[in-house]
Structures are given as structure tokens and as C-alpha cells.
Design goal:
With 603 residues, the protein is mainly alpha-helical. The protein is 65% helix and 4% strand. The chain is globular and about 85 Å long. 30% of the residues are buried.
Length: 603
């Protein structure tokens, strides 16, 4: 294919006239794009460094403000050996820390296998609901004016007495399980150990406690409300297998979703689809239908497929053995981001270019480089539509919450019919929002130099998103845990991936545009970006994972001045009460997934 024919082919893509594809190979105007690439990369790296530094300062300040929180005094200890002398693990914990940390150690809370307890508690709650329904029914009949229904049914009264008897029996079994003898049989090799100072807790969490690294494994405890109790039952030695299984499952899901993504790109490339599938020409009989199908429909279909992915990834992350809900959501956020990069960005790019250029590639194999040079810009119109779809429909759905409304309607028409509704608040779905916004940042980075016309749409997207999510965070969602900025290192990593992809794309484009000097000159920029990433890992990242000894000592000194040290560590010693040891009335008042608007905070 001649150069003139290749430029005539660009007319098939509406945004190619405003992209780098419209520049002739070898043109000196490519140096303008080269200069923009260096400016965007260096300025982006500068902003990332500045933001990392500011967020680290805010994290330390937030830790100082909430220094009364029990997690700053508490360490999670796993793989506790069994004491054959006392037939218990609890005495082993007390002896070990009393010997090796005599001045800092305060107390411990051993954990127990609560599967049997949870089963009995579930039965008790089910019977309580039945008793409540029968009581309401009887009360309604007593107040009914009809003479035939003036008295409650004897059958209902008998059922009520039977349920109350079963409930009393279940309560008795639960109290038996909470007895000391029964609990000893169900001890787990896991405990929350409380120290008298933050310095003592930090030193223990930072250091190896035993010559065998698979014994007495320590980690800073999460917030009491953030603990994932079900995952603490999983043996520590099985965690690598759980994580491997989650990675394999996420990879398979990503591969499986290449099928609908490829189908979506087939719809977007309607002109080629008509050649391969002639019945598709019938869509042209209805005026405007083909434009809707090739323009809006692919992005809407792709967005629909993407809606269920975060929830599937969160379900997988819960099987990875994370010790807290926040770590589960961070892991899910990571998996969703890489899924979106692999499927929505890279595979959409490859499949779209393949469907558009496959015939020319086979008939003119020498022109493959020129086809690949226009591949990125050829998909610009698709990503503009994707950003608009995500901005207009995505933010509208975020405000309206149709999923929760449908779920509430289903409950009202099925098993929740006639029951009094308890208002609940839900937590912000970080695992869904952060990857989606990060993908938009990635698209903007890659197309900032290739197709700058995409940037105004992204600016509108981010402005609208800022307004929507500020409202959602302040007035809609409930804060169920506080990570003190631990999401930022992952967001930083996502943005760096976007910058690196932009640079790799431009290296390829400069080479295919017969500008090898620009391509070679971009390689040092890529190495500088990767070196900056390694520097940030050394300079900032450790402080996001652990409380430093310096900060722990400063916080302790502040507590000593305020005479709050003893109060804080005493409160921490009773904060991590396992579900199987909590009073029955406290457990019954707690929802399984989110806090009630009207309920008080639990233990």
C-alpha cells in the first residue's frame, strides 16, 4: 500500500485528523510530540512525588489524631505453639511475652474456632424472627374488629410457645460453648496481644520473634471494626495456596472476559462487520440505528459487563486470607485495575485494531508496521465514547443507586415481606471506584500525546466525578474503617503504570513514524520513571505499612503528658473480643454487613 493510500485510510476514523497519525513519517513536527511527552512525564513524576510527600504527612497527622485507637497498642500473633503441660495455647502466649517483653507486655486475647457457635447463633436468630412475626400476627388479630378474629389462634399460641422453648434451649447451648472448658478445646493459634506502649507494640510487630520464622508471626493489628474474623481461622501455612488460587481464578476470569470485549469491538467496527457478516446490513434499513449501535452500544455493553467484575473480584479477595476487610478491598481493587487494563484497554486496543486491519495485514504483510502505527489513534473514538458513557451513565447510576433499590424491592417482595425495615448505611466501594477512575487516568495519559482532543472529555469526566463522589462520601456512604491513606501507594502505582504505558506507546510510534532519534531518546525517560518508582518504594512505602518507632515514641509521650496512656491500653485490651465471647444481645444487634444508622458502635 502506498503512503497516499494509507492516509486515505485514516478517514475511516473520525479523530485521526487530530492525532499523531495525521503526521507524515519522518516529519520534524514529531519533535513537538516528543517534547510534550517529556514535559508530561516529568511534570507527572513531580506531582506524584509532591503528592506522596503530602499524603505521608497527612497520614502521620491522622495517626496522631486517632492515637487512642486500640490498634496502635495491639499486635496480631499467629502460629502460636501448643503448650502440652497446660493443654492450652493461651498460657504459652502469656509466658512468651512476659519473658521476652516484660516491661511492655500487658495482656492477650486468644481466638477460638466459632463455626459451631455461628451455626447456633444463626438458628437462634431465625427462631427469633419467627417469634417476632407470630407476636405481630397475634397482636394484629387482637386489635381486629371482626368478631371471628377477635382472639388469637390457639395454633399460633402453641407455635409461639414451641419456638420460645427452642430459643431458650439454643441460648443454653450457646452459653455452654462460651464456658472456659469448651473454649479451651476450640483455641486457635492466633491471638491479639496488647502492650502498654505503642513503642512496645511497634518493636514487636517489626521484629522476628523466634528462630523459626514460621512461629510467633507478628503483624500490627487492624482496627477492631475492620477485623476479618473468618479469615483468622485459616492456618498461616495455607495462606500461600489461598493467594495462588485467587490469582489463578482472577486470571481465568480476565481471559474469559476477552470474549465479550472482542464482540464489543466487532460491533464498533461495523463497516468491517458488514463485509464478514452480510445480514448485519439490515440494520441500515432503520435510519440512525447503525450510528447508535456502532457509537453508544459498544461502550454501554462493555460497561454492563464491567459492572459485575468488581463484585466477583471482591468475592475472590475474601478467599485470600486477608486479616481485615480493608486489605480485602485493597486486594480486590488491585485485581480489578489489572483486569480493566488487560481487557478494557489493551485487549480493546488489540481486538479493535485486529478487526480493522486484519484483511490488509494478510494481503500486504510489508505494511504491518504502518497499520500498527495507527492502531492506538484508531481506537480514540471508542475511548471517547467509553469516557462519556462512564461519566454520564456511571455517575448517574452512582447517585441513583439502582442496584440497592432493586435489591430492597426484591427483599420486600420475597423473604422480607411484612418485616419492619431497618435503615442501613453502606461503605464506599473503593474496589469499584478507584480502579475505574485509575483506568480513565491511564487512557488520558496514553492519549495525551497521541490524541490530545480526548483530554477535554477527561477533564469534564473528572470534574463531574469530583462533585458526585464528594457528595456520596459526605452524605451517602458510611466510614467502616480508616486506613490512614494506605490506598495512596496503590493509586500512585496505577498512575506510574499509565506513564510507563504512554512512554512505551510513544517509543513504538516514533519508531514506526521513521523517527528513530526520538524513539531512542525516549528510552532514558522510561528508565528515569522506573528509577523514580523504586525510589518511592524506599522513601515512602515502608511508612504506609508500619508505624515507625519515632512516631510511636512521640505518641506515647503525648499520652503521658495528658495522663491517657493507661486508659488507652486498658481500652485496647478489651477491644478485640471474638464474636463467640460477646454477650448474646450485643451480637444480635449487629448487622452482618454494615452498621445501622440508629445502632450504637459495637465492642
Amino acid at each position: 500500500m502506498s503512503r497516499q493510500q494509507s492516509y486515505q485510510a485514516l478517514s475511516h476514523h473520525s479523530l485521526d485528523l487530530f492525532s499523531i497519525s495525521n503526521i507524515e513519517p519522518g516529519s520534524n513536527r514529531l519533535w513537538v510530540h516528543f517534547s510534550c511527552l517529556w514535559f508530561i512525564s516529568l511534570y507527572g513524576v513531580y506531582l506524584l512525588y509532591k503528592e506522596y510527600h503530602e499524603i505521608l504527612s497527612k497520614r502521620i497527622q491522622q495517626l496522631r489524631n486517632i492515637r487512642h485507637q486500640p490498634d496502635q497498642f495491639t499486635v496480631l500473633v499467629r502460629e502460636i505453639p501448643f503448650c502440652n503441660e497446660h493443654r492450652s495455647r493461651g498460657c504459652c502466649v502469656d509466658k512468651f511475652f512476659s519473658k521476652h517483653h516484660p516491661y511492655a507486655y500487658h495482656s492477650y486475647q486468644i481466638l477460638y474456632d466459632g463455626k459451631e457457635f455461628q451455626a447456633l447463633l444463626g438458628q437462634a436468630k431465625s427462631i427469633e424472627r419467627k417469634i417476632e412475626d407470630l407476636s405481630k400476627r397475634s397482636t394484629g388479630k387482637k386489635h381486629n374488629e371482626m368478631p371471628l378474629l377477635s382472639n388469637p389462634s390457639h395454633h399460633d399460641a402453641a407455635k409461639l410457645a414451641s419456638h420460645e422453648e427452642k430459643l431458650e434451649e439454643l441460648h443454653h447451648k450457646i452459653h455452654q460453648l462460651q464456658s472456659e472448658n469448651k473454649l479451651k478445646e476450640k483455641e486457635l493459634p492466633v491471638a491479639f496481644v496488647t502492650f502498654k506502649t505503642r513503642l512496645g507494640a511497634a518493636l514487636v510487630s517489626h521484629s522476628q520473634q523466634h528462630a523459626d520464622p514460621l512461629l510467633w508471626i507478628t503483624d500490627m493489628a487492624p482496627e477492631p471494626r475492620d477485623v476479618s474474623w473468618r479469615n483468622l481461622v485459616i492456618p498461616y501455612r495455607l495462606l500461600p495456596l489461598c493467594r495462588l488460587g485467587v490469582i489463578v481464578a482472577a486470571t481465568l476470569l480476565t481471559i474469559f472476559f476477552t470474549i465479550p470485549v472482542t464482540a464489543v469491538q466487532g460491533i464498533a467496527k461495523f463497516e468491517k462487520l458488514k463485509q464478514w457478516f452480510p445480514p448485519a446490513k439490515a440494520l441500515q434499513l432503520i435510519p440512525g440505528l447503525s450510528s447508535i449501535i456502532t457509537g453508544y452500544l459498544p461502550s454501554a455493553v462493555l460497561k454492563g459487563f464491567m459492572y459485575i467484575v468488581p463484585f466477583a473480584m471482591l468475592g475472590m479477595a475474601k478467599l485470600a486470607g486477608c486479616i481485615s476487610r480493608s486489605k480485602e478491598e485493597i486486594k480486590a481493587s488491585n485485581m480489578v485495575f489489572y483486569f480493566l487494563v488487560g481487557n478494557v484497554f489493551i485487549w480493546s486496543l488489540l481486538s479493535g485494531s485486529l478487526l480493522d486491519e486484519i484483511g490488509e495485514s494478510f494481503t500486504h504483510p510489508k505494511d504491518i508496521p504502518s497499520h500498527l502505527a495507527t492502531a492506538v489513534s484508531a481506537q480514540a473514538d471508542f475511548f471517547v465514547t467509553y469516557i462519556l458513557t462512564d461519566g454520564l451513565s456511571g455517575f448517574s447510576l452512582e447517585i441513583l443507586q439502582p442496584g440497592l433499590l432493586c435489591w430492597d424491592a426484591i427483599k420486600s417482595c420475597t423473604y422480607g415481606r411484612g418485616k419492619e425495615k431497618t435503615p442501613f448505611l453502606y461503605s464506599l466501594p473503593y474496589y469499584r471506584i478507584i480502579p475505574t477512575v485509575s483506568l480513565s487516568v491511564l487512557i488520558g495519559m496514553v492519549y495525551a500525546v497521541v490524541t490530545p482532543l480526548l483530554l477535554p472529555f477527561l477533564i469534564g469526566y473528572f470534574c463531574l466525578g469530583y462533585v458526585v463522589y464528594i457528595n456520596q462520601i459526605e452524605d451517602v456512604y458510611e466510614t467502616v474503617y480508616d486506613t490512614c491513606g494506605q490506598y495512596w501507594p496503590y493509586i500512585h502505582h496505577y498512575i506510574l503504570i499509565a506513564i510507563v504505558l504512554m512512554q512505551i506507546t510513544m517509543i513504538g510510534l516514533f519508531g514506526l513514524k521513521s523517527k528513530p532519534a526520538a524513539s531512542i531518546s525516549t528510552v532514558p525517560l522510561l528508565f528515569l520513571t522506573l528509577m523514580f518508582n523504586e525510589y518511592c518504594k524506599i522513601r515512602f512505602l515502608p511508612t504506609f505499612h508500619l508505624l515507625s518507632i519515632q512516631n510511636a515514641k512521640e505518641f506515647d509521650e503525648l499520652d503521658v503528658k495528658c495522663n491517657q496512656m493507661e486508659l488507652n491500653y486498658e481500652s485496647a485490651s478489651i477491644a478485640y473480643c471474638p464474636p463467640c465471647l460477646r454477650p448474646l444481645n450485643v451480637m444480635q444487634s449487629e448487622p452482618s454487613y454494615s452498621p445501622s444508622i440508629v445502632s450504637t458502635s459495637s465492642i
